[in-house]
């Protein structure tokens, strides 16, 4: 079997890439380890930057997002017994975020791809990458082979693409955090209209949502916890303790329909390419979810890769492909910094002494009282324009 671009992984990066390449007349085959049902049910991100929303609309896959997604024009930072609104509509006029589940984006992309006759193989085992320096090919299943001009490694942090690069080529930058997030989906009307990022002595909590009847929550927990150690009542007690800290706020509760633990990590490899392999999304970089940047960065990488592949297949020009990593990394590092910053601003760290806690509160006070500092948060949160960061 032969195609122009072999894509490993049917997450947001791989699916979007396959779709936009198709719009430019470039063929691809997507190889995904899990089932279609699994990838469509995997509950993860929820916040789409303005640029991600625009990209999905331009690509013709934004109709359901526009109907069902929830546009938000601000978030609340809650700490010290009060809530403070970061007003995107005032600080970065015309730019906002849309709350729309990652698995809904994935469903929309799979549907569009299959409707256009796209080739997505689910449940594919034993994917291996070969001959990355010259004529790349992928083997999978029981000895099947996919020959391609280039390979896009869109298989996430635990995928096979990044480890296929020979030892010593990639440089890794990494930071682990001494906590994880317990994520919870509940059938209950959100208790607030906007997202609440709560800093609390008991640990961080986030109140988000998916629809007018479904809420999404995250709790800072120790890194090694098992979701089964958190029965529903314990989750609600802890969410109440961390969120019911301002006068008049009561948390509505309901049946919990999904829960899972996410480790918190910052990670980047440089360069994001080797030979004819190009890494995109979580395969190349991970951020802690506090800044809601991971999915959005994956989309930004795909934009850069699409232009580079288009130039290559149109007139054989390799300039943009050669510069792919450098073009992506500027935005990647901005998001790395923002995600680290939001994480340290809002979580409790065991090693923090009273001095550290006072610094954190002072920083929060500055962010919520200075227009300059609030604008820094707002413009990073809604996403910097693509031309400013790669
Ligand atoms: P993935 O979604 O990981 O997709 C990779 C795909 O490759 C998967 O389908 C996997 O099954 C497949 N694969 C792996 N190995 C192989 C193999 N060997 N062979 C074939 N296929 C393989 N980001 C945001 O922007 N906003 C948020 O609000 C946000 N919140 C988050 C909350 C949580 C709880 C979590 C866990 C993440 C969050 N993120 C958020 C991050 C976001 O979900 C990821 O950055 C995003 O999924 C990256 O997309 P991707 O396509 O690069 O990788
Ligand atoms: C959601 C996830 C995030 O990481 C975040 O910062 C905000 C919202 C969510 O899943 O809704």
From TrEMBL:
Protein name: p-hydroxybenzoate 3-monooxygenase
Pfam families, A to Z: FAD_binding_3
Gene3D superfamilies: D-Amino Acid Oxidase, subunit A, domain 2, FAD/NAD(P)-binding domain
Listed NCBIfam families: pbenz_hydroxyl (TIGR02360), PRK08243.1 (NF006091)
GO biological process: benzoate catabolic process
The FAD-binding domain, residue ranges: 2-338
Single GO MF annotation: 4-hydroxybenzoate 3-monooxygenase activity
Record flagged with keyword Flavoprotein: yes
Family matches, as InterPro entries: FAD-bd, FAD/NAD-bd_sf, HB_mOase, RIFMO-like
Keywords: FAD, Flavoprotein, Monooxygenase, Oxidoreductase
């Amino acid at each position: 079997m032969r195609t122009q671009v072999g894509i490993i992984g049917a997450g947001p990066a791989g699916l979007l890439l396959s779709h936009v390449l198709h719009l430019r007349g470039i063929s691809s085959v997507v190889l995904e380890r899990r089932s279609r049902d699994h990838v469509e049910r995997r509950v993860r991100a929820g916040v789409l930057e303005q640029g991600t929303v625009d990209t999905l609309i331009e690509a013709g896959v934004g109709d359901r997002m526009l109907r069902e997604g929830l546009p938000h024009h601000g978030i609340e930072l809650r700490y010290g017994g009060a809530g403070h609104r970061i007003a995107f509509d005032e600080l970065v006029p015309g730019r906002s975020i849309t709350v729309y589940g990652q698995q809904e984006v994935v469903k929309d992309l799979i549907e569009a791809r299959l409707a256009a006759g796209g080739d997505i193989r689910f449940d594919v085992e034993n994917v291996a990458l070969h001959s990355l320096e010259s004529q790349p090919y992928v083997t999978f299943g029981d000895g099947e082979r996919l020959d391609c001009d280039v390979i896009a490694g869109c298989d996430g942090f635990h995928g096979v693409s990044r480890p296929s690069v020979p030892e010593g080529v990639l440089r890794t930058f990494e930071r682990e955090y001494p906590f994880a997030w317990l994520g919870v989906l509940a059938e209950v009307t959100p208790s607030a209209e906007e997202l609440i990022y709560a800093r609390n002595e008991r640990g961080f909590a986030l109140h988000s949502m998916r629809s007018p009847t479904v809420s999404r929550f995250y709790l800072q927990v120790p890194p090694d916890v098992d979701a089964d150690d958190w029965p529903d009542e314990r989750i609600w007690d802890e969410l109440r303790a961390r969120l019911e800290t301002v006068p008049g706020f009561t948390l509505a509760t309901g049946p919990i329909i999904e829960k899972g633990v996410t480790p918190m990590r910052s990670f980047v490899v440089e360069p994001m390419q080797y030979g004819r392999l190009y890494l995109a999304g979580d395969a190349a970089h991970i951020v802690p979810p506090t800044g809601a940047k991971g999915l959005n960065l994956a989309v930004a990488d795909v934009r850069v890769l699409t232009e580079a592949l288009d130039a290559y297949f149109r007139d054989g020009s390799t300039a943009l492909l050669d510069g792919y990593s450098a073009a992506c990394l500027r935005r990647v590092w901005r998001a790395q910094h923002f995600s680290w910053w939001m994480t340290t601003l809002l979580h409790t760290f065991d090693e923090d002494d009273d001095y550290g806690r006072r610094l954190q509160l002072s920083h929060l006070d500055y962010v919520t009282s200075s227009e300059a500092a609030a604008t820094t948060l707002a413009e990073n949160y809604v996403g910097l324009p693509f031309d400013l960061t790669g």
